[in-house]
Amino acid sequence: MPGARRNQDRVAGGDQRALAVQLHLAGPLEQEVDLLGFPVAVALRGLPWFERRLGQALIADGRRGQAEKLSDRGAVRRRERLRRLEGADLHAGEPSGFGQNRPVTSARDLEQGYTLPWSWYSSEELTHREQERIFRRAWTYACPAGWVAERGEYAACSAGDVPIVVVRGRDGELRAFVNVCRHRGSQIASGRGRRETLQCPYHAWTYDLDGSLRAAPRSEREQSFERSDLSLRPALVQELGPFVFVCADLDAPPLDEALNGMPELLARDLDLDALVFRERAEYEVGANWKIAAENYLECYHCPVAHPGFSRVVDTSPGDYELRPGDGVWTQLGRSRDGNGSCQFHLVWPALKVNVYPGPPNLSIGPVWPVGAERTAGFLDYFFGAGVSAEEASELIAFDDQVGREDAALVESVQRGVRSGTIERGRLLLDSEMLVNSFQKRIFTALS
Asked: Distance from the CA of 89 to the CA of which of 60, 184, 210, 338 falls in 20 to 30 A?
């Protein structure tokens, strides 16, 4: 019930217990109590220790008998004043921007073009929930297939906050495992390379390339130690052309379903199997991952914020196509000189796939939260075999410039939504339909 604090203060009539309630109405609702005959929501999570104690005392007080609560005339009068508030607009009369733009409470608000509550972009608690409910259940790009083409080659990656290792077995099969030792939880592999086994750097527990535990020093001294019970946890893995995808959830839908027709769209402009990996660019930005994704999902800002990009790509509404889909959001455009097209796809939740006008090229890579207000990511750049180093470097530099411009934008947005002065925004559903569709998917995933 954000914004109700000053109104509660005005009607509390000096009652210290009611005043304590108004001090605790800004956080997530913990539970509701009947205080002086009026249902009051008391927020406890995320508060300093002394404020939590006040809230806990309120809850205890709310559970006492009605006769005790109404034992004095002052309490009776305060109860009557609080009852008159029932159904009143506690936001009425507040300064503009504080409480008048209320946070989303249903999918209907999103249908009307309102954004998710801006508090969702700075909440550590919500970020943990997103890791569990979104990133751990989704497919994501891991690495170039060429990194794990030979027997014994491995590459470490992640699916959100879950470390994964992809390895080519001695039998030639590509496998993926949760990259966590079954002993004390250390990550086993880092980077990429080639090995006969996977050995934990902490206590030298050694795993075969099929994930089975081969050796654990001193385990023979234990009365009961079953190596067969301590294999690495498997993860899903699949190759598609020159790309490797992984998913930490063994019950996830197939990769084809997650990509939802995107490879066929890419094949209109590219021979995926002919692409060759050139280089990887890693980055971090000081913004929530959803802000980074939403910025990617619209080019409404391009004429203002990306002058170089807008000189190359026609971003006018009639020529720049937006296609919302089930888990894949697509933007299609053409170069202003008419000699090339471009595609930009976001695969749920935050995998970017880019194709620019020019020689055969594709960049692909995820972003993921490293905190409520910080996002990490990388892009792997692929080019046709005949593309020169100079052409590739020119396109990568062009994309890097767009990325720098976007970093400044999303960090500015983060500072704005963090301020807490406004509770949500209003989208333009024609130009920002992909942002709206993405936010609906977030709302559904977290509800």
From this structure: 60
Q: Using alpha carbons only, what angle is made at residue 392 by residues 391 and 395, rounded to the nearest 5 degrees?
A: 85
Domains of the chain: 5-100 (no CATH), 106-138+260-447 (3.90.380.10), 140-251 (2.102.10.10)
**Angle between the N-to-C axes of helices 433-446 and 124-133, in degrees from 0 to 180, rounded to the nearest 10:** 90
Convert the pLDDT of each residue in 187-230 to its tens digit: 999 999 999 999 999 999 999 999 999 999 999 999 999 999 99
SS3 of 78-105: HHHHHHHHCCCCCCCCCCCCCCCCCCCC
Residue with the two structure tokens 């029932």: 86
- Quote the longest CA-to-CA distance of the chain: 89
My answer on whether omega of the bond before 349 falls inside 30° of 0, hence cis, is yes
Which tens digits make up the pLDDT trace of 185-198?
Answer: 999 999 999 999 99
d(CA 331, CA 319): 11
> Which long-range contacts link 237-240 to residues 24+ away (Cβ below 8 Å)?
237/142, 237/166, 237/174, 237/175, 237/176, 239/145, 239/174, 240/272
Cβ count near 177 (within 10 Å): 25
Residue 68 has pLDDT above 50, yes or no: no
Instruction: Express as a percent the part of the chain with pLDDT over 70.
Output: 77
Q: What pLDDT shows up at residue 107? A: 85
Grade residue 8 by pLDDT with cuts at 50, 70 and 90: very low
Tell me which residue of 410, 371, 378 sits closest to 283, measured CA to CA: 378
Contact yes or no for 188/206 (Cβ under 8 A)? no
Residue 227 DSSP one-character state: G
Q: Answer with the residue of higher pLDDT: 353 or 40.
A: 353
Sign of CA dihedral 19, 25, 27, 30: positive
Reported confidence tier of residue 105, pLDDT bands at 50, 70, 90: low
- Residues 178, 203: Cα–Cα separation, whole Å: 18
Residue 162's identity, in one-letter code, is V
What Rg do the C-alpha atoms of the chain give, in angstroms?
27
Residue 206 in 3-state DSSP? strand
DSSP string, 330-389: EEEEEBTTSS-EEEEEEETTTEEEEE-SSSSEEEEEEEEEEETTEEEEEEEEEEETT--H
Q: Is the dihedral of CA 96, 102, 103, 107 positive or negative?
A: negative
Strand partners for 329 = 346
Residue 87 predicted with pLDDT over 80: no
The answer to whether the beta carbons of residues 184 and 203 sit under 8 Å apart is: yes
First to last CA, the chain: 18
CA distance 374 to 445: 21
Q: Give the other-Cβ count within 10 Å of 282's Cβ.
A: 9
